[in-house]
Amino acid sequence: MGDDALRTRRVVGNWKMNGALAGNAALLGACASAFPESAVGAGRAVEVAVCVPFPYLAQARDLLSGSAVRWGAQDVSVHSSGAHTGEVSAAMITDFGGSFVIVGHSERRAHHSETSALVAGKAAAALAAGLTPIICLGETLEERETDMTEAVIAGQLSVCIEVLGYDHVAQCVIAYEPVWAIGTGRNATPDQVQSVHAFLRRRLGPAGASVSLLYGGSVKASNAAELFAMPDVDGGLIGGASLKLADFEPICRACA
């Protein structure tokens, strides 16, 4: 395990393909009011962020301005520019003032056939533009039940290390999201999460001391504190619970 004093605690909301201008305005405004400063509790400061659909980047920028809430996108192109219709480059996201981008979410891997090599390339493109990539890793239920979790996670991570190198991996955030626990209401136990996070910390080698490891998988206010108390869990990547401040704020405060 690394020294947690070296790592930033984070809670990042992933809106997925949800949102509309009016509803967003209410939610973003409420988030900005709830987190006017980086410290969100009596404990350690926690970095709060939301990753919104591409059409709402400007709205996030405008309504979160002046607050402690950072923001980003949910995907990015591996290409910097050119004839790639429908793609969005990392430079475009930074042009709006974004800080983060999610890469390799299981929904992208499963539904868009994204390989670990492509995910690593997207992370490299994000870093080159000044974004912090949140690299998602995770196993399916079948892989979990056949004791393949560590092999799958190690394989996904090793490609990133090979492409990026340890120095650049140290600038990333890693999110462990077991596919079987995303949006299902089923959650890994704190001990299961800690076991995978400790394994990831070891596999990260010299980058392990500084990389924030987030957990995502049906995190909610009722289980957040127990999950975030684990020594190698530095916060969460939150899906559905990030769409309502009444659900999202207690999770953020639990991380402090």
Explain this structure to me?
- The chain has 256 residues and is an alpha/beta fold.
- The chain has a single domain (4-255), classed as TIM Barrel.
- The chain is built from eleven helices and eight strands.
- It has helices spanning 21-34, 57-64, 90-96, 106-111, 116-128, 141-145, 149-164, 166-169, 190-203, 221-228, 245-255, and strands at residues 9-14, 46-51, 70-73, 100-103, 132-137, 173-176, 212-215, 235-238.
- The longest helix has 16 residues, at 149-164.
Write the layout of secondary structure elements.
Elements (H helix, E strand, L loop, with lengths): L8 E6 L6 H14 L11 E6 L5 H8 L5 E4 L16 H7 L3 E4 L2 H6 L4 H13 L3 E6 L3 H5 L3 H16 L1 H4 L3 E4 L13 H14 L8 E4 L5 H8 L6 E4 L6 H11 L1
Parallel strand pairs: 1-2, 1-8, 2-3, 3-4, 4-5, 5-6, 6-7
In short:
With 256 residues, this protein is an alpha/beta fold.
For the sheet with most strands, the description reads: 8 strands, parallel
CATH class categorisation? Alpha Beta
Mean pLDDT: 94
- Strand coverage percent: 5-15%
| Major sheet strand order | 7-6-5-4-3-2-1-8
CATH architecture: Alpha-Beta Barrel
Principal-axes geometry comes out as globular
The ordered H/E elements are EHEHEHEHHEHHHEHEHEH
